[in-house]
Amino acid sequence: MRTERAATHSALKQFELIQRDIDHLKRVNDLSVDRIGELKEKKGHLFQELEPKFRRASLQFLLVIASGLMTLLVACIGITYFIGTGRWCREVVEMYHLEERLGQRSMDLKKQTFPWAVSAIMVVLVIASLGGAANPSVRLQGALQWEWPYFGIATFGTVWIAYAFRRLRKNIAENYAVIEQIVKQVKTIRRERGLDDT
Description:
By secondary structure, this protein is mainly α. It has one domain. Helix content is 92%, strand content 0%. The chain has helices spanning 2-96, 100-133, 140-192. The N and C termini lie far apart (125 Å).
């Protein structure tokens, strides 16, 4: 009987402890539900406050992507221009036995232009990557640490790209002058040989 009583007492004690734990969990849960409600309300207010910044950041990121595509387009057109005209100059110089310096000058301009065009492409890729990292609508918590590096690299990169495009334009203008010299000499040779001038 004593053992039975001790066992019952132990079971009641365990029941009491379990009930106390359940009541505690209910209180914590009720408190958590209230706290969760407060936190959700705060989060809603913060989101309303941050929404214009998210929109601006998204618009800015779209502008970075658009400028990146334009940079890529211009640099690729420059590369393609030199691939085509460099080959044309070499073939015409060989065919009409013109001065080798004209074909060589075109090739030198091509070699000078490629690094500038490729560097502009690489720089705009870095800018776009950092723009994505600094965009709070993409990564809210990690965006702040990338804000200033992005600003610095974007500023430097924009200046670099502008200078690269200036060099690209200068080299294309010089190559155009070389092409004009080649065309002028070819016209002279064709007239001397009595060939059609078209």
